[in-house]
Amino acid sequence: MPRFTVHIRDEWLAVPCRDITNTIRWLGQEALKRYMKNKPDNGGIPAGKDTRFSMRRCQGLGLLDADDTVEDVLEDNDFVELAIEGDTMSPDFIPCEPGYLSLDGNSLTANDLVNLGRGLYKIKLTGEAERKVVQSRELLDTIVKENKVVYGITTGFGKFARTVITVNKLNPERTRMLLALRINVLAKGYSGISLETLHAMIQAFNASCLSFVPEKGTVGASGDLAPLAHLALGLMGEGKMWSPKSGWADAKYVLEAHGLKPISLKPKEGIALINGTQMITSLGAEAVERAQAIARQADIIAALTLEVLKGTTKAFDSDIHSLRPHPGQIEVAQRFRSLLDSDHHPSEIAESHRFCDRVQDAYTMRCCPQVHGITIDTINFVHNIINTEINSATDNPMVFAERGETISGGNFHGEYPAKALDFLAIAVHELASISERRIERLCNPSLSELPAFLVNEGGLNSGFMIAHCTAASLVSENKVLCHPSSVDSLSTSAATEDHVSMGGWAARKALRVIEHVEQILAIELLAACQGIEFLRPLRTTTPLEKVYELVRSVVKPWIKDRFMSPDIEAVHRLLIDQKVWNVAKPYIDKYQTEYIPESRPGSPTAFSLESPASPRKRVRHE
């Protein structure tokens, strides 16, 4: 069923659409109903009256006509903004005229690439990149003029560039990332692309003229041939393209609508456009950026759960972690201390059980630094692999203008990003695995001392029972998705390409795993905030109260059973937008500034991240 995400004021609302012949007016009214449902006062919107509003797409900023049908003007999973009369359009995610990002093939980062996908920048080349591209092309022109036999230059490379695979397509943001990354790699000057063709690609990117690109069909060696062939196909005026101005249409008409001409390929340019790991790497860049965001927010959510379950902070003492000084473990433990330290942030909840007789907590709380920590270290490892791959020449053959020769090699093989992304999926999944067990503890009255499933009048209300089932099912699905795709290989191209990486699937399933992790942690955050309701009037630490207030700004407390999907979607959006992190970060930074890393007399190492006095700070369960 098609689904659209509608932004109203500070909330994101998922709106399913069973009938795509419904109008844009219907979509807006349905979104308003959901918005008002989450607000005790209907969000200040008078009930029973027709509310006037306008709508536009977030991608491209195009205003939508209320009488147009959904199927005519929107794509599945599109993001739409609704502005109520008297409100102004949100500036949060809509860029002003984009600035320019200069590409040289050497300095693009994963974060840059994601921002390019979001339309925050246009592209231009550095002068040095243009010089190298020209030199490389001049060598190829000489080879052609002298009738030398060189693979991919004066020989063919197949007709698959015109083969259409009927599968799900990449969304516009991911296609923008793919095109930007291909431009960056060609800008290195080792592929023999002409400056004219490269400028044409940049013009298409800057106009958001995006080819239809299937998300399936690559084996990851020789690079991502099929997806990149589709990327090139639209630039040649063949197949389908999309732009905010035209929507989906024949590529030649989309280019024409923007005053652009189809690319006319010169010798070697066909293979230069399709040979490389850019599909794997662009999806991998999105995966690693989202993984970083959810990993640090997982620490905040787990800290809130520990508060609700009246856990101890003793397990986060810096001396413990200095004895096993993995960087991620130390980072997570410090983050927990910065959110829970009872001297820095007094907590009435913590004070209420300070002298209880519990000695230690379950592993799902006590071992967060160890479990979350290896995830952070893995993400950092993968981040380095992806950033290297983003700025690597992965074409074949390589054109060395300074040596006056071309050399065939194997830089197109996707094993590096494939293995790294399989590793990423396994590591990030663990955040979901441990989160689901914490959700169980929150919902189970024998473990939480809270009402069963976090709701009054159990039986009449099921509370978080089904939400926990949802989390469990996603964890189970992730277990299958975490099977490494890169352990597989099938020979292709008449046994010439006899070992492949399967990196495309590694990237796609890593993204799916990460999305599931985000959704599971959204459920835990909802459950922890619901648990707080049963501990009132006691308050938690200041940073965690701010997190609670953020959640309550989009989801009201669970008094009786209601449709929970919008709640989960709303909190999932908070995590994607990193709003949970942004609320807590000032307190984390302040704590780290005031508690300067310093070794203590008699400490076995100098890895401590707290002051010498910290062993005498108050901790829970003394």
Automatic annotation (TrEMBL):
GO terms for molecular function: histidine ammonia-lyase activity. Pfam families: Lyase_aromatic, Par3_HAL_N_term. The keyword Lyase applies. GO terms for biological process: L-histidine catabolic process to glutamate and formamide; L-histidine catabolic process to glutamate and formate. It catalyses: L-histidine = trans-urocanate + NH4(+). InterPro entries: Aromatic_Lyase, Fumarase/histidase_N, HutH, L-Aspartase-like, Par3/HAL_N, Phe/His_NH3-lyase_AS. Pathway: Amino-acid degradation; L-histidine degradation into L-glutamate; N-formimidoyl-L-glutamate from L-histidine: step 1/3. The keyword Lyase applies. Keywords: Histidine metabolism, Lyase. Its EC number is 4.3.1.3. GO terms for cellular component: cytoplasm. Residues 5-79 form the Par3/HAL N-terminal domain. It comes from the Eukaryota. Residues 598-622 are annotated as: Disordered. PANTHER family: HISTIDINE AMMONIA-LYASE (PTHR10362). Belongs to the PAL/histidase family. This is Histidine ammonia-lyase. It comes from Mastacembelus armatus (zig-zag eel).
